[in-house]
Model the fold of this input.
Amino acid sequence: MFPKKIYALLPFIYIASGIYTFIQLGNDLGQAAGVVLIAAGLIVVYMRYSAT
Done:
């Protein structure tokens, strides 16, 4: 299990790495991977903060 600080940052790490991947990789597969990472991060953020 991850420490709580790292666990809380994981979706934002997904989003940041997705943006970086999308920008740095010029081919279609790299950009698709970036979009998937961004989407995964956004879904996790939504699920964590909408569940009350």
Remarks:
- The CA atoms of residues 18 and 35 lie 6 Å apart.
- Residues 16-50 form one domain.
